[in-house]
Design brief:
Number of strands: 12
Order of helices and strands: HEHEHEHEHEHHEHEEHEHEHEEH
Helix content: 25-40%
Largest sheet: 7 strands, parallel
Distance between the termini: 28 Å
Strand order of the largest sheet: 8-7-6-9-10-11-12
Radius of gyration: 22 Å
Number of helices: 12
Length: 319
């Protein structure tokens, strides 16, 4: 595809290293500025402030009010993620800056990971793998684990990803319950108006909602205690959905049956006390990290940028 010459001069800021494919495709089309390569980042932004018209962010790096104010020519923030909690949406609206994300394309992978984490925790897959590798199997069989099929799965946030998790859990004959901002009467699943009620009625609680001020630390001590000493907590949302110290205490004290975590409060920092817990499975925020999905997400970012600068409708507008 021939790139319009005018587009090649447009400066796009990439704050951190992301997908090699995304970087490659951006460099084909735009004047890509790689902030993470600059020894003095603040000065780098000042030097290019008058020319930067777009930012490509992700779940870790977005655009706050300070960055937006420092870029007078900024027109669009295209997020290489479905979550946009790192973007100041209100301020973008005030300043007339467009915002896009990458919904739908990562739904299947993240839902797959939710089920994978659940199986890994309940069937102790990581622990049993180490049991074989260490030679312990020669001394005796591995301990019994917990069945997943037929367990009640509670889902906090029944959006695209939440529904995809529900469909997968149904294949394991799991009754589904959920809590969300509003009841969805078109669905056959049991609705609970509060997360505490939901937690008290399920065996596995999957956090799949967006991070907002209302959902920040929504998984607190009360919710964890309601889930109980046999309950399993799965987080594929954002780290700040969970009160991390409270979860850690519950795990150490035996008040929680286990946890499967893909996200954390201060990534890539993870509480080291979690490392030694065999009923905890930890992933490095990799829920959507397959080659197929990351390339599709990158294509959507590129498509949104091209649409904006060619004065066409955005593919996945948020603001």
């Amino acid at each position: 595809m021939r790139i319009p010459p005018a587009m090649e001069s447009i400066c796009v800021l990439l704050p951190i290293l992301m997908s090699p494919y995304l970087e490659q495709e951006l460099e084909k089309r735009f004047n890509l500025l790689k902030l993470w390569t600059a020894p003095h980042k603040t000065q780098f932004i000042k030097d290019h402030a008058a020319s930067i018209r777009a930012i490509v962010g992700n779940a870790s790096a977005g655009a706050d009010a300070e960055l937006i104010d420092s870029l007078p020519k900024l027109e669009i923030v295209a997020s290489y993620s479905v979550g946009i909690d790192k973007v100041d949406l209100k301020y973008c609206k005030e300043k007339g800056v467009r915002v896009t994300n990458t919904p739908d394309v990562l739904t299947d992978d993240v839902a797959d990971i939710a089920i994978g984490l659940t199986l890994a925790v309940m069937r102790r897959l990581c622990e049993s793998g180490r049991y074989v590798r260490s030679g312990l199997w020669k001394k005796g069989d591995f301990k019994l684990t917990t069945k997943f099929t037929g367990q009640t799965v509670g889902i906090l946030g029944l959006g695209r990803i939440g529904k995809a998790v529900a469909r997968r859990a149904e294949a394991f004959s799991c009754p589904i319950a959920y809590s969300s901002r509003t009841e969805k009467p078109e669905l056959k699943y049991k609705y609970y108006p509060t997360v505490v009620e939901l937690a008290s009625k399920c065996d596995v609680l999957v956090v799949a909602c967006a991070l907002t001020e209302e959902t920040r630390y929504i998984i607190n001590r009360e919710v964890i205690d309601a889930l109980g000493p046999k309950g399993v907590l799965i987080n594929i949302g954002r780290g700040h959905h969970i009160d991390e110290p409270e979860l850690l205490s519950a795990l150490l004290e035996g008040r929680s049956g286990g946890a499967g975590l893909d996200v954390y409060q201060n990534e890539p920092e993870v509480p080291e006390q979690l490392f030694g817990l065999e009923n905890v499975v930890l992933l490095p925020h990799a829920g959507s990290d397959t080659t197929e999905t990351c390339n599709a997400m990158a294509d959507l970012v590129i498509g949104n940028l091209e649409a904006h600068f060619l004065n066409k409708p955005l593919l996945t507008p948020v603001v």
